[in-house]
Amino acid sequence: MAAKPSTGIPVETQCYLKNNTDVYVTLDSQSYWHGYGQPPRSIQSQNEGHLKHIADDAGSIGGISYVLGNQIKWIVAWSNAEDQSNKVYTNILKASDVIDWADIKANLGKSGNQSSVNNINGFTSEVVIDATSPTPKLTAKLRQAI
User: Which InterPro entries does the record match to this protein (predicted)?
Assistant: First the structure.
């Protein structure tokens, strides 16, 4: 059963980014289709970073990428838009790959309130967002694959 869309006007998305690896990650790039916020420039090993992404009149919709050494790019994207269920999307690319933000946005549009990739280039990413809140909490976790 699909989640009931948000009944409120989007206010913000609280993004909690957990780096559960043995290496710090550094901000690589960001794409904000709607809204604004300043993501942490880096997240230390076994720590959490926080981004408060403020909605504009169309919502809080964006994506960020962190690079882990010269190994991978960790991508987290979200959509918190009026009269729509909140969505998230994640992926892991090689560090040398170029990010296609249009493709990320298209995949986000097809996603739900949970997204994960397992054992991509030796890492796993899991992202979840409250499906109906106008001020949802997004939790993203990056870890080494088992």
Answer: Jasmonate-induced_protein
pLDDT score for 1: 46
Alpha-carbon span 132 to 113, nearest angstrom:
9
CA dist 75 and 78 (Å) reads 10
Ordered DSSP codes for 103-144: HHHHHHHT--SEEEEEEETTEEEEEEE-SS-SS-EEEEEEEE
| Cα–Cα dist 103/20, whole Å | 26
Tokens coding 4: 């009931």
| Domains of the chain with CATH codes | 12-144 (2.60.270.20)
pLDDT tens digits for 126-144? 999 999 999 999 999 999 9
Q: What is the predicted pLDDT for the residue at 5?
A: 56
pLDDT for res 146: 81
